[in-house]
Design a protein that fits this description.
The chain is α+β, with helices and mostly antiparallel strands. The chain has 2 helices and 8 strands, in the order E-E-H-E-E-E-E-E-E-H. The protein has one domain. The chain has a 6-stranded antiparallel sheet with strand order 2-1-5-6-7-8, covered by helices on one side. A two-stranded antiparallel sheet has the order 3-4. The radius of gyration is 15 Å and the shape is globular.
Length: about 120
């Protein structure tokens, strides 16, 4: 079973592969943490609207596999947010002080569409 990880950093796109879900999740966390450690974004001021750094997605790490479409968005202020969904992304809520990476792992472990 092959897992695909797509890293989007501004206009740059890298595609990686992992042999197992655990390897893929480790890859997602490593790449998202690297994006979060990078330079932040500035506020974008348009005529009709202003976008603060926390409103901007500076980078995205997507995980695709059998029945799975999920990932981590890295905001312009360095914060990370786990999500799931192919067309419509839904935020995965963090529970009890867990990181977004832990929330993603928990969600995928609970998912019935993913074999352990």
């Amino acid at each position: 079973m092959s897992w695909r990880v797509t890293v989007r950093d501004g206009p740059r796109v890298r595609k990686l592969r992992a042999g197992s879900l655990d390897e893929a999740l480790d890859l997602v966390e490593r790449e998202a943490r690297a994006l979060a450690a990078g330079p932040g974004r500035r506020t974008v001021d348009l005529r009709a609207r202003t976008f603060a750094p926390q409103q901007q997605v500076a980078g995205r790490v997507e995980l695709r596999g059998p029945g799975v479409a999920a990932g981590i968005d890295v905001r312009g202020d360095g914060a990370a947010e786990a999500w799931t969904g192919r067309v419509r992304r839904r935020v995965i809520e963090q529970e009890g002080g867990e990181s977004p990476y832990d929330a993603l792992r928990r969600f995928l472990a609970q998912s019935t569409s993913v074999d352990p």
